[in-house]
Amino acid sequence: MLYTDLLRLTVLLVGAMATALGAVGVVAANQDGDTLTLIVAGGWWTIAAAAGLYLGTPQRAAEGISRALAGARVATTLPPQSPGRVAFARLWPLGLLALVAGGVAWLWPQVPVIGAGYAILVALQWRNREAAVTGVEDRDGVRFYVVPSSAFEPVRLVRTPGLSRDRMPPGHPPPPPPAEPAEEPLRPA
Fold first, then answer.
1. pLDDT tens digits, residue range 16-46?
2. Which residue of 13, 48, 89, 165 is most buried, as measured by CB atoms within 10 A?
3. Is residue 11 within 8 Å of residue 123, measured between CB atoms?
4. Total Cβ atoms within 10 A of residue 128
5. Are the C-beta atoms of residues 121 and 51 closer than 8 Å to each other?
6. Cα–Cα distance for residue pair 126/106, rounded to 1 Å
7. Tens digit of pLDDT for each residue in 63-75?
8. What are the C-alpha distances in Å from 171 to residues 32, 145, 175?
9. DSSP string for the chain
10. How many CB atoms lie within 10 A of CB 147?
């Protein structure tokens, strides 16, 4: 599985988890008439969003992935893998966390509300990591693949030769076509 795909999937799943936990927490707190939890939720989600935006700047994203990219081993072939299995092996704790936090919402609506804020922070913090990896891949003409491993281990990557691109970087106009030599008019003899 491409590392960029895993990063994109992680951000989308964490964002979906934030939405689901927030909705469950708000419904449970509203049913209990717990306005304090709703006020705390609004404040916590605002703080988490601001912190996530600050921590997710492109410079911090590049710093966050630098160790994983630098530790990638070079290979000419890909390890045998199934993208679905790799994604499930790496991301199943997110689903378990969402189920547990959402499951206790009817007893303690504060738990999913706090979990939703944390998920907002993480999703916004990780939003630029895929772009940072893509930038390195495009610059160096390589691709980074995830080595299948446990979710409790740091991610390990394999660096493979990619296809170098013969096109201009985004935002640059293409070069003009080469000029054809002008033909001289025929002269009568």
1. 999 999 999 999 998 888 889 899 999 999 9
2. 48
3. yes
4. 21
5. yes
6. 30
7. 888 888 888 888 8
8. 54, 27, 12
9. -BHHHHHHHHHHHHHHHHHHHHHHHHHHHHHHT-HHHHHHHHHHHHHHHHHHHHHTSHHHHHHHHHHHHHTPEE-SSPPS--HHHHHHHHHHHHHHHHHHHHHTTTT-THHHHHHHHHHHHHHHHSTTHHHHHHHHHHHHTEEEEEPP--TTS---EEEEE-----SPPTTSPPPPPPPPPPPPPP---
10. 17
Tokens of 130: 């895929």
Sign of CA dihedral 179, 181, 184, 185: negative
Asked whether 72 and 157 are in contact (CB, 8 A), the reply is yes
Q: pTM here?
A: 0.77
Length of the chain: 189
Question: 84-120: per-residue pLDDT in tens?
Answer: 888 898 899 999 999 999 898 888 989 999 999 999 9
Burial, 182: exposed, middle or buried (Cβ in 10 Å; 0-12, 13-18, 19+)? Answer: exposed
pLDDT at 176 > cutoff 60: yes
List the structure tokens of 73.
């081993």
What pLDDT is stored for residue 18 in this prediction?
A: 95
Amino acid at 100: V
